Each structure stands twice: as structure tokens, then as C-alpha cells.
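Two proteins, back to back. First:
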Amino acid sequence: MHVPFCLRRCPYCDFTIVDESKDGAVDHAVYVDGVIREIALEPDFGSLDAVNFGGGTPSRLTVSQLGAIVEVLEDRFGFADPVEISLEVNPEDWSDEFGFGLAEAGFTRVSVGAQSFDPVVLGALGRVHSPEMIASTVAGARKAGIRSVGLDLIFGHPAESSQSWASTVLSALEVQPDHISTYSLTVEHGTQLSREIAAGAPAPDDDVQADRYEVFEQAAAKEGFIRYEISNHARLGHVCVYNLATWAHAEYVAFGIGAHGHRLGVRTRNHKRVDRYLDALDRGEQPIVAHELLSAHDQERDALMVGLRLAAGTPMTDMATRFADSGPGRRFLDAGILEVSSGRLRVMVPMMTDAVLREALSVCKSGC
């Protein structure tokens, strides 16, 4: 469920959003009404195991708006028992009233967009909250009875020192979240960050980012966190069902501008502009702008690509076997970067995952 609204676009962000500081006001209620109409147009899917509100900034909506969408989803598809209902939230949007409202509406998980506990780094990332607001949001979610509380962190900005990152990791662990997602800062074309770097600002350093990742992983492991995907660590019982399904190549329906769906061997993408999205709904049409029919080869390739991100790895399908037996695959195996065990292919060095994926994709294009 994509909620695109942001007070302003962060300098590293290339997501489909509505930057309300530049794009003008878009009526949130009108957008929610459009999402509800889109849900009604979706063919039967079966009960939902997980619902994820991503953004943008989903916490820009009111609790009543969020709850209305949850209610419509349950009426339309039904929910598994138990169901995971998660929301990405920015600390500056949090209040006790908001937290208790989320719990009453059925939300079981919140992911707090912390990014850093260093005020200097927060400023460089374009964030408007303080470190104290992060801790207050986690405490508030606990008080409201939200079952799983997570933090999102970004590492590797040039404004961040080794000491700064170590302090952020310590602060993140001290607030005792159930789940932590860590993302290396990437430079996406067309963003403010990319323009600053093109003008001479320092760029993120891959080796530094690898060091940052290791610092976090070692500290998190000591506190009982288990890595289940390259960017995601959780305490026992708090793995994010939505994340796990995504990386397990599961099917999902998607709603809102720019949303991507995957079902019955077809990937879909919605209109990115709110006006075109709403115009399609006014015509009684699904707001889909592109369909991609996936062949059996495409499906197996995609499952391999996402499965290699999982700590559990991916099954040794024919394609996985051909990659493991290829020149690049054997070199990764010999170096201990890849491992074949119990019928699965695993990446053993998480920060090498992108390199492995590039080689796997190259091999599968030419020989799989």
C-alpha cells in the first residue's frame, strides 16, 4: 500500500512521492478514496498474510484514513490469522493518540524511519527529527501495544564518521527494537545527492560502507538479532512477514501511485502521477500503466536473484546449479563467498551480495 506524501523529498530519495513542499497540496482524503476504489477493482486474490503501508510517509495519513483502508482490505480479501499489518512512520509524526489509534485499527508492526542518531548526519540526510524523537517513538509504540517495533537506519553518508556510526548502532540497540533494517546510502540518478556529488561533493565509499555493515552486524548479533536478509535483522519471533515474502518471490497485490504488483506470473506497475492515477479510477479502470508477462525462465531467474539475498539462501534449482557450476560461481565458492549446503545456495559474505547478483544475472542471461 503506497502512501506517497512527504513534507519534502530527502536528498537521496528517488521514490515515487508527492513532495508537498514543491508539488502543491494533494487532498489526502481524495487519494485515500482513490485507493479504496482501486481495491474494489482488484480481482480475487485470497486472504492476505501481510499488509505493508510504505511511502512516501504513510504516517502523514490520519489514523482514521489508515484504518479505513485496513477495513476495506479485510472486507475485500480477508486476513490470515494472524495477519501482519505494518506501517512506516517518521518520528516527527508520532503521538500517543496516533499510536493507540494504530493499535485499535489492527496494526501489529511499525518501522520507525530513524536513519541515524547523529544530528549532523540527520541534517545531511535531510531528516527533520531529532535522536530524542526516535527513542520517544519507540517507547510510544511499546506503550500503545504494537507487537513489533523496528528501526530503519542508513549508513555510509560522507558526513558520518566511524565514531558517529558506532554511536548510532549503540543508541539503536539501547532503545531495544525488535527489528532493524540497515541500508547503505546509494546515489540514485536525478536526486539532489547525485547532483551534489557531480558538483564535487564526496561520494559514499564502498569499503567504508562494508566496514559500517560489519560493525552493525557484530553488535546486533551480541544483542540477539539474527540476520534473515542482507538488510534485515530481527529478534526471534519478529521477522517481518512482508519482507520475507518479498524476498521469497511470493505474490502480492499493490495499491497506490507507482505501486508494483506480482501475481499469476505477471508484474504490474501503476501510474506514478496522482492525476493520471485518479483519472483511470474515474473511468472505472485499474490504474495500471504497464504489464510484464514473466516466462518460466524469468520466474526462475527472479526467484534466484531475490533468494540470494536471504540468509537461508535459495533452493538449488537448475538455474542456481548452473550458476554455481559456472566460472564466476566456482570462484565465489572457492573464496567462501558462496556456499552450497542442504540443497541451498547461500551468500556467506552479505556485503558481497550485489557482486554475486551481478555475476548470476550475467551468467543466466548468457547460459541459463
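And the second protein:
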Amino acid sequence: MQWLKGHKKEILKSLLLILIVGAMAGCGYGILRLCGFSSQEDFIRLRDDLGDSIWFWLVIAAIQIFQVIFIPVSNQLVTVPCALCFQDELWKVFLTSWLSIWSATMILWAIGKFGGKKVLAWVLGDKEQVERCSKWLSRGWIFYPLGMLLPLPDDIVTVLAGTADFKFWIVGICSLCTRAIDITCSVWGWGYLTKFWWGWIVLFGGTALLCVVTYFFYKIEKNREKDAVAKTESKN
């Protein structure tokens, strides 16, 4: 209780920030529904209007970028209905979704990098706390791929990665690979992996393997930190 009283302002600001993000997501989803881009029937209608043309895929790419930035939920909101409409050309759904979602991910990283610390400064109100929080977040680069694949709001994870000053190439390569896996499961998984019992084993086995690899990278990083501390102490 004492801790809550001592951090009352920070907690209230954090709750306000959560409400703002929630409201933004709700408004974003409302805009998609209002424009007719929220169900399989809507995408079928769009396909009938534009056909299998470059304009159709540009519209899909724009919708994907919009939903990634303004609606921090799974890409399945757009990818799955689109895949159900184009079951004979799923590679186009995959390629369009992959490139557009990855582009939006990098935009989120840039938002976090150039605006994340300002938001942290507003919430925490103390430069030392901001630097301490940023330093703590920066240690999470090892877990970034895991955070992008687990059922988490990965768009928010990417903003935090930008706030923690994760390097561009780390976020770029990791998100390019993890988005490919995620979108592959969304495009083909509904028809194959989740239809058979062995498909679930593949999904859970892959997640478990990623957790094991992440753990080994974590141990390697901890050993590097210990070696760095030991070298610093020996010099002193």
C-alpha cells in the first residue's frame, strides 16, 4: 500500500495511457468496420469490385499497415479473412501481408525510438527513472523474437523495443523472420496445421524450441555481463 501511495501519479498516468491505447484500438477497429474491411464478406466484396489487380493488393497492404499501427492486436484480423477469399493464391496474401506488416513494424519501432522516452518521461516524471527503465528494457533484446511470436500484443512490444533503443538491424531482421512465421501460420495454418493433431504439435514444439534457444542466448548474455564486470573490477 505504501508503494502504491508513493507512485500514485505514475500509476494514474499509466492507466490513462492504457485507456488512450485502448480507445485508439477501438476507434481503429470502428473505422475498419465503417469502411467495410472487417469480415470475410467485406473482402469478397472488395475482390469482386477490384478483381485480382494491383489495386486490390495495394488496398490490402494499406489496411494491414493501418491495423498494425492503430490496432495492437493479431494480424489475423485482416490476414485470415483475406486468405479465405484467395485460397487459390495464398502466396499473394502471404507476400502482401508480410511486407506491409513488416513495414508497419519498423514504423512502430521508429515511433518508440523517437517518442517512447518522451512518454516515459511524462509517466515517470524523473530523468533518472527514465534512464533506469530504458536500461532495464534494453536487456530484453534477447526476448524480442519470443515476444513477437507468442500471443502477446507484439505491436506494443515493438514500440518498447524502440524505446529501449534496440538496434535497427536487430529489430529489422528479427521482425522480418518472426512476421514470416506468424503470417505463414495465419495464411496456411487454418487449413493445415490446426486441422490435424500433428499440426498442433508442430506449433507448440516450435514455440518450445524458441523458448529453449532464447534461454541459451540469455545465459550467454549473462555470462558476457559477468565477464565485463570482472574485467572492470580487475582494472580497478
